[in-house]
RNA sequence: GGCGCGGUAGCCAAGUGGUAAGGCAGAGGUCUGCAAAACCUUUAUUCGUCGGUUCGACUCCGAUCCGCGCCUCCA
């Protein structure tokens, strides 16, 4: 089955192939670096990481660009309140962003770009729009005239006929011809950071950075543009308008949007007290890969209800897979290879791949893996799983982990080293042999306190870290 | 009001015109010096509700109820 995605632009699931057949040129809206990432942000970024990994799994090359919005109203306010320049203020949150996303094992895009490094590209784009008659100036600011782009609304599928200009209360302080017109370049305000440009002293509007940087690095038509659902309107709609009105070419072929998450069935918000950053969760003792698993396990187009029961379930599910991997690596299986089980491994891989090809159905993919794990565990218990089947099973896990990447535990740091554990395990084996169960249990307890769990099997004792 | 998404077991969740994946939790059992791991059995005659189409619908159509999102800054 072909790889396919739901495209917000057409509201249908479409087969996906990059325009040049091999390299996916993709742009995702990155963070506004004024705070630490919360789990809602992380859900979107995690879904994009799954997307990246799946495209690579399918043999495609990637040119993925993500922006860092390091100048906007909130940043200007917050940095002023903190008595810092916008650069000082945003650099700490930019660093924190990569630290946090690194912990949940998000791959870094091929190109990360900051808005403030691309003011020149934005100015050029705005000048191009002006040359095409799509802009107007008012009190030093430059606006995009929506009336100049008849297709406005095609992404969000909004119809604006009947809307009276100025009918909506405009919270923005700048004057506009039409309430829907949006600002490309904001005139300088006293005390605010600004750039001197041919457009006048000021700073960029919110939407222009994405168009300018996306086209700068990826050309006029991208294969994929992705973000959270809340960006569909007005952000992505405006990106389309300002890009296409300039180039007269489609800005992006596929638009992918990740649904929001809820927390314990409610919208996440600070006022409800259910607002969590990744740092909050890690402080509560959850492993970053557990958060990753939970966020990735629900398909990206479905709202995800984030609960503490859910994160607990994710933790247990990961342990099950780790135990399975441990069993594969430490057990002695009879010689030979079971053709039936080899076939079963191929079938599991096929199911896994079919699910992810189908608009990244992560829940379906996980189902394929767990079903395979249970069946092969049963075969192992029955003595039907043979030594020659180990490689195939490890391959199933490896394919899974290429996408989900949760099997390797995050190092807790400190603790006992492997040699010391092996020595105690050996001593305990001796004690058990001579039926000295008191000493045997003492060692088990000692290791448990150090976070090491011992498991006695017919092939000897194996250990793992908690 | 307009546009869009969703309602499947205690919780999370896949699926689809042919008779309900998977994970977690619960109960019982097997194995075990202890413990752990693993496995087995068990938990939806039923997929928000009501109609319709069909040999057959959870899956298609209509209506209806409920939840959520966007329409203004927002992942």
The average pLDDT score comes to 92
In CATH terms, the superfamily of the largest domain is: HUPs
Class by alpha and beta content = alpha/beta
Number of helices: 14
- What does the overall shape look like? elongated
**Helical percentage:** 40-55%
Number of separate structural domains: 3
The poorly predicted ranges are 162-174
SS strand fraction: 15-25%
Distance between the amino and carboxyl termini: 40 Å
Give me the Rg, rounded: 27 Å
- CATH architecture label name of the largest domain: 3-Layer(aba) Sandwich
Strand order of the largest sheet: 5-4-3-11-12
Multimerization status = single chain
Instruction: Report the major sheet.
Output: 5 strands, parallel
In total, the number of strands is: 17
CATH fold annotation of the largest domain: Rossmann fold
Quickly name the level 1 CATH class of the largest domain: Alpha Beta
Written description of the protein model:
The protein has 466 residues and is α/β, with parallel strands linked by helices. The protein folds into three domains: 4-258, HUPs (Rossmann fold, 3-Layer(aba) Sandwich), CATH 3.40.50; 266-404, Isoleucyl-tRNA Synthetase, Domain 1; 418-465. 45% of the residues lie in helices and 18% in strands. The chain is built from 14 helices and 17 strands. Strand 9 (195-197) and strand 10 (200-204) form a beta hairpin. Helix 10 (339-357) runs antiparallel to helix 11 (362-381). The radius of gyration is 27 Å and the shape is elongated. The two termini are 40 Å apart. 37% of the residues are buried. The protein binds one RNA strand of 75 nucleotides through helix 1, helix 6, helix 9, helix 11 and helix 14.
